[in-house]
Amino acid sequence: MNNRPFQRAKQTKVSDLIMQELESMILDGTFKAGQKLPPERELAERFEVSRPSLREALQKLAARGVVYSKHGGGTYVSEQIGSSFTDPLLELLSAHDEFLYDQLEFRDALEGLSAYYAALRATEADKAMLTKRYDALVEANLKEDASQESKLDTEFHMAIAECAHNVVLLHTLRGLCSTLEKSISANLTNLFDKPDARQHIMAHHKTLYEAIMAGKADEARAAVHTHLVFVEDNLLKIRHEESRIQRSLRRSENTMN
C-alpha cells in the first residue's frame, strides 16, 4: 500500500473561473462578435470578484484572441469569432444561382432543427425577444419594404436559433448569417413579383412563430419545411418562365436574321 499523502489538487484561480464564464457567455450568444463588453466595474460586480481578477481574466482571453481592447474605449469580443464560416467559398456559393437550391436544402435541415428545439426550450425571455423580432417583420411586411423585410427575416430566423439553446447550431447559423441574408434577399426580390407571394410567406412565418410560442416542436419544424418548399417551388417556376422567355427571344432573333 502506498503511504504517500495525497497531493492537494491544484486550486482553480479566480481569474480562470471568470474566463470560463465569459467564454460561456460568448458561446451562448450573450456577447456577440464585435460587441463591446460591459465596463470592468460592472462585470466585477456581476461576478462578485475583484477588478484585478477580472482584468487578469480579460488579459488571458485577449492573449487567445477571444477579446481585444481599444485604448480608452473598452474591451470587445473579437470580430474573428465564427470567422471559419466566412470562407470565400460561401461568397462564391451566394453569387451563383445554380447553388441556390442547395442552400435551401441546407436551410431546411438546420432551421428545421433550430425551430424544433426553440419550441421545446424557449424561455419567457426568449419568447419576448422572438415576439419583438416577429412584430418588426410584420410591420415591414405591411409596408411592403422588401429590403427591410429581408433584413428582418434573417433576424427572425436568427432569433429562433438563439431560442434553440444549442451553441453549435447557433454559431453555425450565425456564421452563415451574411450568406443567409443574401439568399433571403434574392429569394424575396424574385418571389414578391408574383401575386400573393408576400402574403403566403408571411403566413408561413406566422405559423412558425405560433408553433414555437405554443411549444409545438414538430409543427415548428414542419412550418420551416413548408415555407422553404414553397420558396423552392416558386423559384423553380420563375426559372422555367425565364428559360421559356429566353428561348422565345432566341427564336425571334433567328427568324429576323
From TrEMBL:
Domain of life: Bacteria
Keywords assigned: DNA-binding, Repressor, Transcription, Transcription regulation
InterPro entries per record: GntR_C, TF_FadR/GntR_C, Tscrpt_reg_HTH_GntR, WH-like_DNA-bd_sf, WH_DNA-bd_sf
SMART domains (UniProt xref): FCD, HTH_GNTR
Coiled-coil residue windows: none
MF terms (GO), sorted A to Z: DNA binding; DNA-binding transcription factor activity
Domain HTH gntR-type span(s) in chain numbering: 12-80
Function: Transcriptional repressor for the pyruvate dehydrogenase complex genes aceEF and lpd.
Protein's UniProt name: Pyruvate dehydrogenase complex repressor
Organism: Marinomonas fungiae
